[in-house]
Structure formats: C-alpha cells, structure tokens
Design goal:
Layout (H helix, E strand, L loop, with lengths): L2 H8 L3 H7 L2 H14 L6 E7 L4 H5 L4 H11 L10 E7 L4 E6 L1 H7 L2
Parallel strand pairs: 1-2
Antiparallel strand pairs: 2-3
Length: about 110
Amino acid sequence: MRILRFLRHSCTFPWQVRRVFPKRSLSVIETLVRESECSHLAELKFVVEAALSPGELIRGMTARQRALEVFSQLRLWDTEHNSGVLIYLLLADRRVEIIADRGINAKTGS
C-alpha cells in the first residue's frame, strides 16, 4: 500500500463529497439520468464515494474493484435487458469508473 494513497483516503471525508456535489448538483444529475433513460434501454446509476476504508486500502483495493463491488451490491446486473451501467467516482483517488452489464458490453464490444 502506498503511503500517499493511504493519507489521501484518510484525509478525504464524506462532507467533501457534499461540497463537490451539493444537493442541487445531485438533483440535476438525477433528473438528467432519468430523462436519458427514456431514450435507451440502459439503467444508469451515479455513485460518489469519498474514500475507501482502511481495510480496503490494506487489501490494495482499486477504484475499479470497488466499482465492481458497488455494481454488485446495487444489483445493477439484475435488469430486464442486462443493461445496468454504474458511473462510479472515488473522490480520494480522483477516479471515475464506468461498469456496464453484459447486455451493454455485447452491443459495444467492450
């Protein structure tokens, strides 16, 4: 585990997520997601987390691995057309991960 990464995660708090994404911004994102879902079959979810837990850091968890875990916890794989998409932001790492279910991957070749 890299010390700088551990320090970044130790010093990134949930209130910082609210500063970067105030309620109004999250409301706008939610509205845009809902509107976009009317024009395609994908089911989108936007998730922001401040930081990983010390245990996750010690295990060397990456933002991608955490995004896959969140995708599973939210059951985004359990959609009618296998078309769940997670847009995951890990603030401490400044990483955005996009996880798409197999129905999306089959169409995009990703």
